[in-house]
């Protein structure tokens, strides 16, 4: 089974802080990266940073999963560009449960099963209380 590299790309520092929160809960994670597009940043620079991470992972024979916050936003467009150019998976609507599921299951599940579990955990974690 190939190692899975995780890249979180979001608006602002949301993804960076989300990854820190996940690591606070389940410990430091290898092959985990986060990039943020802050006000005034250049989208092309974000794409170059993401491309550097993705290229390196693919050259090492690793799978890559990119999480983004919002479908249609600039971070999402960067992720979808990576999917087109490098055959990586992109999941939108990232939340903390999705990342925890991925990190705790990435060494034991096949890629398709893993991505289904990740998206389901994200959905299952959304609850409404009175």
Automatic annotation (TrEMBL):
GO molecular function, one term: kinase activity
Pfam families: EIIA-man
Species name: Propionispora vibrioides
Localization in the cell: Cytoplasm
Keyword Nucleus attributed: no
Keyword Magnesium belongs to the record: no
InterPro entries in the cross-refs: Bacterial_PTS_sugar_comp (IPR051471), PTS_EIIA_man-typ (IPR004701), PTS_EIIA_man-typ_sf (IPR036662), PTS_IIA_man (IPR033887)
GO BP of this protein: phosphoenolpyruvate-dependent sugar phosphotransferase system
CDD domains according to UniProt: PTS_IIA_man
Keywords: Cytoplasm, Kinase, Phosphotransferase system, Sugar transport, Transferase, Transport
Single GO cellular component term: cytoplasm
Superkingdom per UniProt: Bacteria
Record's protein name: PTS system, mannose-specific IIA component
Location of the PTS EIIA type-4 domain: 3-126
Major localization listed first in the record, in broad terms: cytoplasm
């Amino acid at each position: 089974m190939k190692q899975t590299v995780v890249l979180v790309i979001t608006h602002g520092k949301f993804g960076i802080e989300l990854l820190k929160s996940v690591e606070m809960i389940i410990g430091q994670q290898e092959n985990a990266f986060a990039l943020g597009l802050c006000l005034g940043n250049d989208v092309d620079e974000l794409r170059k940073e993401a491309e550097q991470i993705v290229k390196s992972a693919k050259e090492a024979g690793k799978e890559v999963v990119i999480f983004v916050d919002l479908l249609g936003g600039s971070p999402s467009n960067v992720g979808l560009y990576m999917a087109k150019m490098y055959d990586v998976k992109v999941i939108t609507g990232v939340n903390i449960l999705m990342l925890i599921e991925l990190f705790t299951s990435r060494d034991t599940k096949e890629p398709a099963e893993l991505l289904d579990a990740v998206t389901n955990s994200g959905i299952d974690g959304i609850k409404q209380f009175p």
